[in-house]
């Protein structure tokens, strides 16, 4: 976990700035007739409407790395064909039940280059395995088998609704959006979980 700790520490001070960096101004639009946005938080972020309240998805800087290599070798891509990006904790604090195709609301965050990724729970974190290439800007990318397509709908002003195009199987997920447009492999991950059917 040494490499994870170093990277998390070096990027922690930029985490709050990350949402501002990726936000883009959108032209005002008429509110969608079927969506009630009353009470949605004013801060930039990604939100889910649960019953009568808005739930804020927490975010983590997703920086791909290989804990077996030094940071220098990670950046130079020496000695491995994949990297990993991790989110602390075996499960997200946000667990969604009875909704296999949840709708999320991006407030002040562009849906451009947004990914919905399935993560693998480990003992105390969730893992995203990312194949790597020699092209620096494309250094680490997501595997097709971990991705689910998203439908995108403009709602009102700088609020956009996104929804999986197919049902999500139970598990852990993240909505990954660019931290810095110049480095596509460095992203913010907004995490959530999908609960399985309740046993009777």
Report on this model:
- The protein has one domain (2-194).
- It is 14% helix and 39% strand.
- The chain has two helices and 13 strands; from the N terminus they run αβββαββββββββββ.
- The strands form two sheets. Strands 3, 4, 5, 7, 8, 9, 12 and 13 form an eight-stranded mixed β-sheet that branches. A five-stranded antiparallel β-sheet has the order 2-1-6-11-10, with no helix packed on it.
- A hairpin with a 2-residue loop joins β1 (45-50) and β2 (53-56).
- The model is unreliable at 1-31 and 69-74 (pLDDT under 50).
Describe the structure in brief.
The chain is mostly beta strands and 200 residues long. It is built from 2 helices and 13 strands, in the order H-E-E-E-H-E-E-E-E-E-E-E-E-E-E. The termini are far apart.
What's the overall average pLDDT, rounded? 77
Distance between the termini: 39 Å
Could you tell me the radius of gyration in angstroms?
A: 17 Å
**Quaternary structure state of the chains depicted:** single chain
Largest sheet report: 8 strands, mixed
Outline: globular
């Amino acid at each position: 976990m040494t490499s994870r700790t170093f990277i998390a520490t070096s990027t922690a001070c930029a985490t709050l700035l990350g949402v501002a960096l990726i936000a883009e101004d959108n032209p005002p639009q008429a509110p969608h007739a079927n969506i009630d946005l009353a009470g949605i938080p004013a801060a930039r972020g990604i939100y889910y409407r649960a019953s009568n309240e808005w739930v804020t998805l927490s975010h983590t800087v997703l920086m791909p790395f290989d804990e077996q290599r030094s940071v220098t070798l990670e950046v130079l891509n020496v000695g491995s064909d994949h990297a990993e990006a991790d989110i602390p904790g075996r499960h997200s604090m946000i667990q969604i039940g009875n909704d296999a195709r949840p709708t999320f609301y991006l407030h002040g965050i562009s849906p451009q280059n947004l990914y919905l990724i399935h993560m693998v729970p480990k003992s105390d974190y969730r893992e995203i395995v990312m194949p790597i290439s020699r092209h620096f800007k494309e250094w680490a990318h997501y595997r097709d088998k971990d991705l689910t397509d998203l439908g995108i709908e403009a709602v009102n002003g700088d609020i956009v609704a996104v929804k999986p195009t197919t049902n999500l199987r139970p598990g852990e997920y993240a909505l990954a959006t660019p931290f810095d447009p110049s480095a596509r492999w460095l992203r913010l991950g907004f995490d959530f979980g999908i609960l399985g059917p309740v046993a009777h």
